[in-house]
Amino acid sequence: MAPCLNRYALCIDEVVAGLWDTTPKKEGLFDSKSYPKGVIGGVTGSASCVPGTNVENCKKCLSTAKTSLDECKSVTSGSFTNDVCTMWYGQTLK
User: Fold this and answer.
1) Is the pLDDT confidence value at 56 over 60?
2) Contacts for 61-69 with beta carbons within 8 Å, 24 or more apart?
3) Which InterPro entries match (predicted)?
4) 68, 57 Cβ separation under 8 angstroms
């Protein structure tokens, strides 16, 4: 389970890093944070796109990250409002 949790915590960072490299900085900032020890016995984290960043890239990131994280049976949710998209994800060891 531990290797899975590690991949789970790092996945969104990798996805966002790719978007950061391809998104003009003047359009906005894509920020990702993972907290491997944020939840006792599990993992939690979030990825958010601030106003101005390409909306389609935000949606693509949420979709790609969710697909990748699903292999760890994550509980994932995403929201999109006024050019801002945020994804929260978490997994608890059983």
Assistant:
1) yes
2) 61/15, 61/16, 61/19, 61/30, 61/85, 61/87, 62/87, 64/15, 65/11, 65/12, 65/15, 65/89, 68/11, 68/15, 69/8, 69/11, 69/12
3) GNK2, GNK2_sf
4) no
Could you give the CA distance from residue 29 to residue 38 in angstroms, rounded to a whole number? Answer: 23
**Cβ of 69: how many Cβ atoms within 10 Å?**
24
Query: Rounded to an integer, what distance in angstroms lies between the CA atom of residue 2 and that of residue 52?
Result: 37
DSSP code of residue 52: T
- What are 39's two structure tokens? 């939840």
CA distances from 71 to 31, 34, 36 (A): 23, 17, 17
Each residue of 70-93: pLDDT tens digit?
554 444 444 444 444 555 444 444
Q: What is the pLDDT of residues 8-52, one digit of tens each?
A: 445 555 555 554 454 443 333 334 444 333 334 444 444 454 444
